[in-house]
């Protein structure tokens, strides 16, 4: 009997999108779509079919989606919500890593109406952190959840000691979006980059953590957990200069007049920072994450710690691997019908079932992304 391969479209062929497309092409008929021909040329080198299109043209996107069975979203955050809405209206299932700022549950009723499964925030953190928490939340009473996570260049290079795999605008958004966390059952909101701490990691050294808005859907879906926080990691000293740039107004979205021309400072900064933050050919980076959960399981106090230290592997960036392969694992679960919950599904919903949790960990391990548990 002839088996027809499912057709998957990957929207966005950047550093993460192209890696996901190449991984999925081993099992599906995959097409990567992007506006940038340069990005498509890089994806083509990985034996991926490509198509050039303006993904901001939602009418064109609706037509583009018609022949495909499943959609993967890998566009910048500011485009993500409207693209997800268009995918839903087209009646397609989707796994998304655009991390758009809007509340994804605003699309829940629409997704249920169209009978589709939409998994949002399906990267490393948000993403795998949510999956891990979802798994343990079903099996214990968690009192404390902490996630520390960051992606950094292997070599520290002045002045920024940082390189971006994602859209520069999305990175800057981390530095200005208020950070939400849960303390003693109450929602706390602080400015981004607040409460810096120095934290030691084996095989890495000392990094600096600060409040970021990474809990996202967990604030809504895990009301039973009284203490939850996510912090971003950078090399020590990073926070101070980011605060200076922010307080100067250089990350502002409000237009200013410069010699009669209206400009947004954030656009200028993104333009200036991108070449500084761009990885050089052959430059390596790493992803580090530590998740700690404390609570009670079967009447006994328990503490679980998950550790991830992943490095560039055979030329494939770590952040692309840890983010992308989490997403592609979930694509497989949806494609074969293992996961079919209709509506908006943040990643913690997938972690509830042991079979899904084990599959994702195994899928990552096969691709040399290893989570150690203690």
Portion in strands: 25-35%
Number of strands: 18
- Which whole number gives the mean pLDDT? 95
Any low-confidence stretches, pLDDT <50, length ≥5?
none
CATH architecture of the largest domain: 2-Layer Sandwich
CATH class of the largest domain: Alpha Beta
- Classify the fold: give the CATH topology of the largest domain: Dihydrodipicolinate Reductase, domain 2
Overall, the morphology is: globular
The rounded distance between the terminal residues' Cα atoms is 46 Å
Structural class, by secondary structure, is: alpha/beta
Contiguous helical run count? 13
Total of domains: 2
Name the CATH superfamily classification of the largest domain: Dihydrodipicolinate Reductase, domain 2
Rg is 20 Å
> Strand arrangement, largest sheet?
3-2-1-4-5-6-17
Helix proportion: 25-40%
Explained architecture:
By secondary structure, the protein is of the alpha/beta class. It has two domains: 7-123 and 318-373, Rossmann fold (3-Layer(aba) Sandwich), CATH 3.40.50.720; 128-311, Dihydrodipicolinate Reductase, domain 2 (2-Layer Sandwich), CATH 3.30.360.10. 33% of the residues lie in helices and 28% in strands. It has helices at residues 17-24, 37-44, 58-65, 77-89, 108-113, 128-137, 168-176, 218-221, 238-248, 265-277, 318-335, 347-350, 354-366, and strands at 7-11, 29-34, 49-52, 70-73, 93-96, 117-119, 141-153, 179-183, 186-190, 197-201, 205-211, 227-234, 256-258, 261-263, 285-297, 300-311, 343-345, 371-373. Helix 2 (37-44) links the parallel strand 2 and strand 3 (49-52). Helix 1 packs parallel to helix 2 (37-44) and helix 1 (17-24) packs across helix 11 (318-335). The longest helix is centred in the last third of the chain and has 18 residues, at 318-335. Residues 8-119 form the Saccharopine dehydrogenase NADP binding domain. Keywords: Oxidoreductase, Signal.
């Amino acid at each position: 009997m002839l088996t027809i391969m499912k057709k998957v479209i990957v929207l966005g062929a950047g550093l993460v999108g192209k890696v996901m497309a190449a991984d999925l092409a081993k099992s599906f008929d995959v097409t990567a779509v992007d506006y940038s021909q340069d990005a498509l040329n890089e994806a083509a080198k990985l034996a991926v079919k490509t198509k050039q299109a303006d993904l901001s043209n939602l009418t064109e996107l609706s037509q583009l989606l018609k022949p495909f069975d499943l959609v993967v979203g890998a566009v910048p955050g500011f485009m993500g919500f409207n693209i997800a809405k268009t995918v839903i209206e087209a009646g397609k299932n989707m796994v998304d890593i655009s991390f758009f700022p809007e509340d994804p549950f605003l699309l829940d009723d629409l997704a249920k109406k169209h009978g589709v499964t939409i998994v949002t925030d399906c990267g490393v953190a948000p993403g795998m952190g949510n999956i891990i928490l979802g798994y343990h939340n079903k099996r214990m009473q968690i009192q404390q959840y902490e996630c520390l996570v960051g992606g950094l260049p292997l070599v520290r290079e002045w002045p920024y000691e940082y390189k971006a795999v994602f859209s520069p605008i999305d990175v800057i958004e981390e530095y200005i979006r208020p950070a939400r966390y849960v303390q003693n059952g109450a929602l706390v909101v602080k400015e981004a980059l607040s409460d810096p701490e120095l934290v030691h990691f084996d095989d890495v050294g000392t990094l600096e953590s600060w409040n970021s808005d990474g809990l996202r859907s967990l604030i809504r879906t895990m009301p039973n957990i009284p203490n939850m926080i996510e912090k971003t990691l950078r090399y020590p000293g990073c926070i101070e200069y980011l605060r200076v740039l922010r307080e100067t107004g250089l990350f502002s979205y409000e237009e200013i007049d410069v010699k009669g021309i209206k400009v947004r400072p954030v656009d200028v900064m993104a333009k200036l920072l991108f070449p500084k933050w761009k990885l050089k050919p052959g430059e390596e980076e790493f992803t580090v994450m530590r998740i700690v959960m404390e609570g009670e399981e079967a009447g006994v106090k328990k503490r679980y710690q998950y550790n991830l230290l992943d490095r560039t592997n055979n030329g494939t960036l770590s952040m692309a691997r840890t983010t992308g392969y989490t997403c592609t694992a979930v694509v497989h679960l949806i494609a074969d019908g293992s996961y079919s919950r209709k509506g908006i599904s943040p990643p913690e919903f997938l972690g509830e079932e042991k079979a899904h949790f084990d599959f994702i960990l195994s899928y990552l391990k096969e691709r040399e992304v290893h989570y150690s548990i203690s």
